[in-house]
Amino acid sequence: xxxxxxxxxxxxxxxxxxxxxxxxxxxxxxxxxxxxxxxxxxxxxxxxxxxxxxxxxxxxxxxxxxxxxxxxxxxxxxxxxxxxxxxxxxxxxxxxxxxxxxxxxxxxxxxxxxxxxxxxxxxxxxxxxxxxxxxxxxxxxxxxxxxxxxxxxxxxxxxxxxxxxxxxxxxxxxxxxxxxxxxxxxxxxxxxxxxxxxxxxxxxxxxxxxxxxxxxxxxxxxxxxxxxxxxxxxxxxxxxxxxxxxxxxxxxxxxxxxxxxxxxxxxxxxxxxxxxxxxxxxxxxxxxxxxxxxxxxxxxxxxxxxxxxxxxxxxxxxxxxxxxxxxxxxxxxxxxxxxxxxxxxxxxxxxxxxxxxxxxx
Length: 361
Ligand SMILES: *[C@@H]1O[C@H](CO)[C@@H](O)[C@H](O)[C@H]1NC(C)=O
Ligand SMILES: *[C@@H]1O[C@H](CO)[C@@H](O)[C@H](O)[C@H]1NC(C)=O
Ligand SMILES: *[C@@H]1O[C@H](CO)[C@@H](O)[C@H](O)[C@H]1NC(C)=O
Ligand SMILES: *[C@@H]1O[C@H](CO)[C@@H](O)[C@H](O)[C@H]1NC(C)=O
Ligand SMILES: *[C@@H]1O[C@H](CO)[C@@H](O)[C@H](O)[C@H]1NC(C)=O
Fold this sequence. Notes:
The chain has 361 residues and is α/β, with parallel strands linked by helices. The protein has ten helices and 14 strands. It has one domain (6-235, 313-357): Glycosidases (TIM Barrel). Helix content is 32%, strand content 21%. The protein has an eight-stranded parallel barrel with strand order 1-2-3-4-5-6-7-14, surrounded by five helices. The longest helix is centred in the middle third of the chain and has 20 residues, at 132-151. It is globular. The structure holds 2-acetamido-2-deoxy-beta-D-glucopyranose (5 copies). One 2-acetamido-2-deoxy-beta-D-glucopyranose is lined by residues 280, 347. One 2-acetamido-2-deoxy-beta-D-glucopyranose binds next to helix 7.
């Protein structure tokens, strides 16, 4: 957060001084991105410096979920990509309109002092219908969009939603209003529940049919497909199997329940890089589940326990990405950009290239 601290210190002296300090070699790179896009490749940047190795021929927006990096801002702008803030606030703190305005003003100021192009509202909080928080959330989106668009011309305000609009994890939001009032929704098509609740077995993070059904439901409620960006996972889940059945079903020790973050209780998230380093030495090698349309393998840990890892790879992502066109969606993106292997290893380079390539079939 060093860069941000410095900017705020200057702000005390005067905003003009602060805004004059463009960190880019070409001051024009501090201008907000103005052009509009027909399609998006939306990247969450979470850590490190590997962003230099993203496929910038595709990237349209980078959402900053890491400390501010002025070098990344200049670089994204040099590629014509938007660079946006993360926005999260406890909803009980923005029910009051004055507090809400103050929060929005703070975010706009931060975006301006960092020469950024908008905000990604990542409010993953439970809300019951028709509560004060329910209405406040819709107002927050409306007012955030209105303020950013006015204060930073060309800026983009987006909102992250779960994989379907049916109160997933008790997120009962006014989805159609939020879609209407923001630039678009980023649909987090991952952390989906297993195919069958009563069987309690490991399954895909983002099963194909379930994923597509989620988009059909958003569209059916009247949301313009151009307001939806498909989010795909560049990570999977590693389950510890209590028992592995003859049909290669990994039975889980604990049965997850619907509105807890189902997967966290019995499994660990693993990035694509880690998965690729494991798969060839696993017990099974890469297997393909043709019902869920996802990849998996089994391995044995040092204590002798059997694990099953479910993940997305170029084959599963290709199937979903073709639906971006079929359904007329705004684009695609991933959680998150820093989970691939960006090293110089030739095998890793091929795998990383393939993951970027399949985003836009
Ligand atoms: C959004 O805010 C504007 C004022 O900025 C207001 O006129 C409008 O009714 C609001 N829309 C919704 C759907 O709340
Ligand atoms: C959602 O918000 C819109 C716009 O504010 C409103 O007209 C509609 O009644 C709301 N729907 C629900 C279910 O609250
Ligand atoms: C998902 O499965 C249902 C029921 O089998 C089927 O009707 C539907 O066409 C499938 N959707 C896709 C996108 O394949
Ligand atoms: C484990 O799986 C095997 C093979 O499917 C089955 O015969 C056995 O009953 C299972 N054990 C338990 C404790 O569920
Ligand atoms: C793992 O196996 C695949 C398929 O056989 C191969 O293409 C890849 O290079 C192997 N990965 C490593 C790290 O050796």
